[in-house]
Design goal:
The chain has 93 residues and is mainly α. The chain has one domain. It contains 4 helices and no strands. The longest helix is centred in the C-terminal third of the chain and has 20 residues. It binds zinc ion (ZN). Zinc ion binds next to helix 2.
């Protein structure tokens, strides 16, 4: 899969966001990473990405983003190959 875009996450901005949302900093940072991975793999700039943005759970994709991610066949194939490698690697140990 060619690299065509990326994300920058600023620690200070993220910490400010955690304080504004009265969230645990580590959990908020994790949600931010999940959010950006959702944009990248879902190939969309739409919002909301995670349920937290709707007042729900941290680091859980919305149904809309799960559909976007599952619709990316390149990502699905890559994930299947990675699962296969893990199974082979784990079974050899
Ligand atoms: Zn976003």
């Amino acid at each position: 899969m060619p690299v065509t875009a990326g994300s920058l996450i600023y620690i200070e901005t993220n910490r400010d966001g955690a304080a504004e949302n009265a969230a645990d900093v580590a959990a908020f940072e994790q949600d931010t990473v999940v959010h950006e991975v959702g944009h990248a793999v879902g190939r969309s700039g739409d919002h909301p990405v995670t349920l937290f943005e709707e007042g729900g759970a941290l680091s859980r994709y919305t149904a809309s983003y799960l559909n976007k991610i599952r619709s990316n066949q390149q990502a699905v194939e890559l994930a299947r190959k990675q699962v296969g490698k893990c199974v082979i690697k784990c079974s050899q140990s």
